[in-house]
Amino acid sequence: MAELKTRPSDDDVTAFLEGIEDEGRRADCFDLLKLMRRVTGEEPRLWGSSIVGFGSYHYEYESGREGDWFVAGFAPRKRALTLYIMSGFSGHDELMARLGRHTTGKSCLYIGSLEDVDRDVLEELVSRSAAHLSGSRPE
User: Fold this and answer.
1) 84 and 126 Cβ atoms separated by less than 8 Å
2) Domain ranges for the chain
3) What is the tens place of the pLDDT at every residue in 94-128?
4) DSSP 6-20
5) What class has domain 13-134?
6) Average predicted confidence (pLDDT) for the chain
7) Is 2's pLDDT higher than 60?
8) Least confident piece of the model among 30-39, 47-56, 57-66, 70-79
9) Closest listed residue to residue 95, CA positions, set 82, 109, 84
10) How far is CA 127 from the centre of its chain?
11) What distance in Å separates the CA atoms of residue 82 and residue 38, rounded to the nearest whole number?
12) Strand (E) or helix (H) holding 93
């Protein structure tokens, strides 16, 4: 079975974020760093060359494929900030309606900037996703 290419590295997260050319995107990323560190209680690690992930969990599919992935994370992409909400968005309709301007993929939340969204709602979304993966309920 093929191994995942995206794995945790020992590269410096702060240096990676400081290398972001766009000042607004860089500031948003440092804000997300604080938010996800606070919500997950985990220190950030660079996964692959461009994803900042927090914590980890082991998954195993019925097919036998298994691996490790981060609990919450984000990546500064050119077109949008990509936030990884690993629990997905099902059951979060009320939060998603209040979030602000965004689009989604299966577990990816795409936002132009943090100014486009309600940060309290975003924090709650990350918190619920992290709690879902840990098997606990958010407080």
Assistant:
1) no
2) 13-134
3) 999 999 999 999 999 999 999 999 999 999 999 99
4) --B--S-HHHHHHT-
5) alpha beta
6) 89
7) no
8) 57-66
9) 109
10) 11
11) 19
12) helix 93-99
**Tokens 């577990």 belong to residue:** 107
* Tally of residues, the chain: 139
Question: How is residue 99 written in tokens?
Answer: 């979030």
Count other C-beta atoms under 10 Å from residue 114's C-beta. Answer: 19
Amino acid at 17: L
Instruction: Supply 113's token pair.
Output: 């900037």
Structure token digits, residue 127: 């918190």
Which of 38, 43, 26, 57 lies closest to 124 in space, CA to CA? 38
**N- to C-terminal Cα distance for the chain?**
39
What is the per-residue pLDDT for 88?
87
